[in-house]
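User
Take a look at the entry that follows and flag anything odd:
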Amino acid sequence: MKKQHVQARPHDEGEVAAPLDPERLEQQEDERSLDLVQRMVVSALAIVIGGAISAGLTAYITLNPADLTQGSIIALWVIAGFAGLLTAATVLVINRRHPYSPLLLLGLVPTALSAYWVLT
């Protein structure tokens, strides 16, 4: 496809665009709204998938400790914590926040809740 360059039009004194054009403002609002909805949907998807992995692993090691050795319980517990942290970081990045935020610790909630059963 051949690129076409836009040529500059000579500026007419009579054609001055209004700084607060209502159509342009409405279009920008719609774009922001669509962007917000897209970020919320992708964030919810990441939370469900990553949260299911983290919560599922911690539930498994909490409810079935007899099936696993102590070393494998701790390894699965660490993997669940890493999955939770990765999920929280993903959601922060999707929402244009810095991934090294205190909100990152919310990814450790399933791991922290199962700590009593894992470490005893």
Summary: The mean pLDDT is 85.
